[in-house]
Predict the 3D structure of the following.
Amino acid sequence: MKRLRYIGWRLVQMIPVLLGATIVLFLMVRALPGDPAATLLGVHATPEQLAQLREHMGLDRPIPVQYALFLRDLVTGNLGESLTMRTSVGGLIWDRIGTTLLLVGMTVAMSVGLAVPLAALAALTRDRSPDKTIRLGMTLGMGMPQFWVALLLMLIFSITLHLLPVAGYGDSFPGHVQHLILPALTLALSMAAILTRPLRADIIRVMQSGFVEVAQAKGVRTFRLLSRHVMRNAVIGTITILGVQVGWLLSGTVVVEVIFALPGLGSLLTRSVLSRDYPTIQGVAFVFVVLVLLVNLITDVVYSYLDPRVKLG
Amino acid sequence: MTSSRKMLRGLLASLLVLSGLALAACSSNGGKTSTTTASQVTGSSGETSTSAADQPKYGGTLRWGWDDEPTNLDPVVPTDNWAIWTILNVFQQLVRSNKDGTGVEPYLAEKWELASDNVTWTFHLRDGATFSDGKPVTADDVVYSLERARGKTSSYSSFFSSIASVKSPDPRTVVITTAQPYAALLPTLAFFPASIVPKAVVEKDPKAFGDRPVGSGPYAVSSWERGTKLVLTKNQYFKMGSGPYLDGVEFVRVPEANTRLLQLEAGDLDVVRPVPFTSLATYEHNPDFGVLTPTIMRVDWLVLNVKRDPFTDVKIRQAINYAIDKEAIIKSLYAGFGSPANSILPKVPGWDESVTGYSHDLAKAKQLMAESTRPNGFKATLTFWTGEDTSPQLAQVVKQNLAAIGIDVTIQSYEFTAAMDKASKGEIDIFQGYITSDLADADELATLVFDPNAGTNSLFSFWDNAQATALNNSAKGEMDLVKRKQMYVDAQNIAVTDAPFVPLIYPTDAAVRSKAVQGLSILPTSNYRLEEIWLDK
């Protein structure tokens, strides 16, 4: 009950943050040099055509008026119409958000799936060769550029081994998952690298604590020791890092989306920035802000489940 | 500790098993790889892919990988290349650009006459033209479409400003009257905004038309997942020639060039365009693929801001022209494809090889510099827009070339919109870029270049030569082909002498197809005719 109240209160607190975000977005986008009408019409445009198109796009009105109209529409759930594609921004986002969320979800699952066993292995073999190899691998993983890793994975798994498709998104849900394996792996490799080091350190620290000594003395087997006793305590710090990483991931999928030709929010944002499609930029950026705030909230709630000493609100 | 060592082995084992399971669980997509043979068979590098002299086969779906996609398919809405190429296959126009880039040929109109007053054009529509929804194309639709093209909602109305009225005296005839004699009317009617749309469908829902267009061209849009795939299917009512052969074409958006090529190699795509020039060599000698490098109406250039000191000095501008080594640029950046540019106009009708451009002559360049207002050289900035493969390297070559005559160049790049903004405000010294012609006619680009009031201040050079402008204006209305061409040649020669521009290269287009794809050719106007393509499978 207390948790629900906390969650409710946090959601309410989001509103002023979102409002502030819309103002910043609105102004920032319009501060970009170059204007959407000129970008659309190109070199051939006459001044009259430009003026006409700007009027059509609603860009000739004073900025506060434009902002007020934007807010009014936002409150009713209308994110406006794309200047370049002449189709609803909400529709564009709705079509793509599934891809981005699925990609982020698979990336998190893979990075956790990689980081937890690797960190545990490294912690248990501390300073011996498995640990050293893993730490070296993690340093390399953090340094490798995504672009390069992506192409390498394509060459190995698609071209040479014929196991996975090169790019694209596929047709059905199983198809989507299959097509996202390489993209998610590309992202997961660097994310796992970031998660493994602190997790390893935390496992080592927790393993040295009193209650672990007691459990070992009682004869608890190592695997059970880790899964029931150590992990719950060790992951707390890493959860925070994971929460931040997921926030980054939401918009950090752009490179991977472009290389693997995935119809996600990241590539939509890139295209709309390049064409100065203000409503689409605002809409997508706004959705990102909402998602990041939600991820922060979820992180805090998960935290409270893991550590009963943490009091919410 | 024994238990932890056992656990270690357990952990390692489970990691291995997991990864093995993961790999096995992913079903193979059965991609095919092509093997590069050591054979010296040269792939086709001309304009058309070599057909094996077989009879075209009907059926199949062509999968085409492109780097972006249309924003909107309504012919009069602001559009980009991908939209243009699609519109030209989904809709028909009264006439269309011919395959050698010299002009137009009949399309929806099977013949036409120009009255002796030189302003009244009468077009006779062909029999049996039908929209993909089964309704016939009528003269009413033609009138509606052209009025729409030159009306308020069209972003291209200025292109049709020469038209005074469009009428249909009977259901098979359309009469277009121009305000003054306008020599480029036919190419203008082949221009994509002049596509013929069904009046009833557009009026019912003009907004939706851009997503779900209906045209009388050989292919119709069957589905469009924005950002991913645009699927066209055969228009069963299209009857001109023996095509269309393919049941459908899928245009897949793959922004990254390497990915596109990998997909082609894996057999996931049949055609890939564009292809970086440096990658073409791999496919040229590979019998499983064909390479296309057709000449297109494009020119890559440097533009000098003649209002900025010291580019006000014509000797400096001429020196710069002499200093650039175009052959070296073609070899190093374009893998040998393309030709040196002699004129600021690309190879449109009106361009001529007799226009004597500048050769690479370092001695002459140095001499001109010595005679100029800056014999000891000067500093300047070169600006280009980002997003093009070859721009940064081209800028480096230009910088080196100009260093040899004492000009110290700093290179700057901006994103396209920002670069255009600066250029139009006259804030750039040397502007590096390119332009293509949408019309199979000199008018579009010649006006941009020779008329400072046409919207870009003479392609951002701020050059103003009354004689060149007058020649361009006369050429607009000159119906005699020979006289008209001579006017453009004269204007180009003036541009060469005055040297506000430094034309660099006429590059080619670049595409790669798998060997099963036949009948593919890219026209000088950069578009392609899907109804000519068939799959030899």
